[in-house]
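[09:14] KT: can someone run the structure on this one? pasting the chain below
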Amino acid sequence: RISSYNRGGFSAKALRNFSEMIKFGFDPNLVTLYSVLSSCGLLGLVREGKSVHGFAVRRELDPKYESLSPVLVELYAECGRLRDSEAVVRAVGDRNIVAWNSLISLYAHKGMVIEALCLFREMVTRQIRPDSFTLASSISAC
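[09:31] RB: done, structure tokens below
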């Protein structure tokens, strides 16, 4: 239900349902948390997003950020917190290329050419193998 609201453009309703879910003692899964974090980003609610992120960390729902890292990158970037997005990518290390790709794509979209290319170079230096999306995002930054 929450992910349907989010996909349908009803982000505020998704967040209300999440609050009710927690209030009544239901445990969210990663799909629910992904949708809630996405809703927070779309609405520019960084404080609420950080709270949900903290909830996931405390509950150890995604201990290595393997599932939530891409949406966390987007959440923080959409709320103007690019440094937090970078921190998520660096916390993931080489385990999740999707998070790296998300940040490179965001840099490219915002016209931050140097940052996008520096991140690409950092990936290569860390021996994280770029995929076709990485290359396309890096080229589009130029």
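[09:33] KT: thanks! Residues 1-92 form one domain.
[09:34] RB: yep, looked fine to me
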